[in-house]
Amino acid sequence: MLSDIKNTVRQSAVYGLSRISLKLAGFILFPLYSLYLSVDQYGVVVRAEIFWQIINSFVLFAFETALMRWAANTGSEDERRKLSFTVFAIVALINVLFMTVGLMFSSPISELLFDSAGYSSLVLICFGISFAESLIGIPLVILRMREKAGSYLAVVVSSTVISMAIQLYVLFYSEDKITGIFVSKLVAPVMMLAVLSPMMIGYFRFRFDRIAGREVMAFAFPLMLASFVSMMLSGQDRFILGYLSDSREVGLYGLGYNISGVLNFLIVAPFAMAFPVIFWKKISEENGPRFFTKSVTYGQFIITWAALALSLYAPHFIKVFALNPDYWAAAPVVPILALTFVLTNMQVTGHMSFYHSKKTNIVLLMYVIATAANVALNYLLIPAMQMYGSAIAKVISYLICVVLIYVLSPRYYFIRWELNKLILMTIVAAVLTAPFYLFDIGNIWLELMLKTLALASFPFILFAFRFYEEIEITSIKGFFLKYSRKLRRI
Asked: Is the confidence at residue 480, as pLDDT, over 70?
């Protein structure tokens, strides 16, 4: 069990660098963004980023999940190679169709998204990013299936560094900084595709499998719709917020979301990429059900503790992170948005119940319900509460997804949740966070000391409520004894 968990953590750390590389580059460079872009301009960047991610949910067509699912049940390596080519060919065709749409309607789309036709070139770049991002999805899955973690890591890190270098040049020397930033986001996946193409071509068996193609399409289509609806659930609030308020409010909300998004690219995204690989390997093993249950519990332990840290230190972090004081007003929305990623992490394992049973239409239904609720809640709460209303609407919508998973999954392959422990962690983290936003302590050093004490007390408070099993306490003690001995030898 412990070795399986360690393997999941290792794979999460490596594979989590894939689709988050562009976001990571933008996050690291944000201090310069805050100097060279006004909050209003940053609001445009926020909406453009969401737009290309929404397109990507269409053009990738959920084929990464489908390829992993079918490859896991294919005994022959030759069949996997043929399947990989089949999936890539379908993805490429879909991308060509969408790129044609982008070329034809860039101006109307710009007017719809930004209230101006002047961003038509930015719209085209967004289509290009989605095109390249989708195509590299298949060779990256091939690397994951072949367990080529070193090659995977080298390609992703190199492309991210180059993207950051181009963004630095744009911020310092370019007149049109917004367009330049997105050009750099396009360069990274294009370079990855160029580097991975020889490996991909060498792996493919160039024969289109019509039967497998139809089966994969039938499996992936509901997931594609679910992915699209999920992206709408994640990003539509920025467009509604801009429509009901202004670009400045979108910029502040976007910054708060990106800061809380640290939880996504450090924990949720890596776990979401690693867990399915482990799931299909463990599904037939005797200790599989307990491993899945504990993966949920300790996955939530890690992200809840991290969300607590982020929430406590956000007001201080943002003053260092954002060099322009106009951005500092985003800090209070971070704890609310951090909770959305805590809830998102719970969905990673929950969705596998439906993937295993090939009930992908259930995943789609859940996201449709949550997205419809999100739209209604945004229109209800934003006029009175601005970005806070949008954040609360998001939390409620993600909670709806979690509740639906918990209610519906027992009908299929059920991954049991230790629900009392999950609720306990959330309540403890909320109670430790709330006082620092309700009361003004006045002394910065006292405040930091109390926040550090609150953060450190989290696992001990859980211990007082009998959160840990005896075997887990023994393992934790063994871990600390092992590494304390190593430290004493140094």
From this structure: no
- The radius of gyration computed from the CA coordinates of the chain, to the nearest angstrom, equals 23
Tell whether the model's pLDDT for residue 20 goes beyond 80: no
Residue type, 466: R
Phi, psi of 468 (to 5 degrees): -95, 145
CA distances from 181 to 122, 176, 412 (A): 10, 9, 45
Q: Which residue has the tokens 């659930």?
A: 233
Q: Which of 445, 451, 449 is nearest to 429 (CA)?
A: 451
The answer to whether the beta carbons of residues 129 and 182 sit under 8 Å apart is: yes
pLDDT at residue 23 in the model: 63
**What's the sign of the alpha-carbon dihedral 44, 224, 13, 71?**
negative
Residue 488: count other Cβ atoms within 10 Å of its Cβ: 7
- What secondary structure letter does DSSP report for 392? H
pTM: 0.74
pLDDT at 11 over 80: no
Q: Which helix (H) or strand (E) holds 175?
A: none
Residues 6+ apart with CB under 8 A from 334: 256, 259, 260, 310, 311, 314, 318
Q: Which pLDDT score is estimated for 82?
A: 83
255 in helix, strand or coil?
Answer: helix
pLDDT digits (tens, 9 = 90+) for 304-338: 999 999 999 999 988 888 888 898 888 899 999 99
User: Is the pLDDT confidence value at 452 over 80?
Assistant: yes
**HSE of 296 in the Cβ direction (CA atoms, 13 Å)?**
26
The total of other beta-carbon atoms located within 10 Å of residue 443's CB is 9
Domain count, the chain: 1
One-letter amino acid for residue 447 of the chain: E
Q: Among residues 158, 185, 174, 165, which one has the least CA distance to residue 49? A: 185
Looking at residue 351, its amino acid is H
* Residues belonging to the chain: 490
Residue 92 in contact with residue 301, Cβ under 8 Å? no
Highest mean pLDDT pick, 72-81, 154-163, 376-385: 376-385
Query: Residue 120's closest CA among 48, 43, 54?
Result: 48
- Looking up tokens 């379908």 gives 90
SS3 labels along 457-486: HHHHHHHHCCCCCHHHHHHHHHHHHHHHHH
Residues 6+ apart with CB under 8 A from 483: none
Q: Identify the domain containing residue 111 by its residue range.
A: 2-489
Q: What is the DSSP letter of 413?
A: S
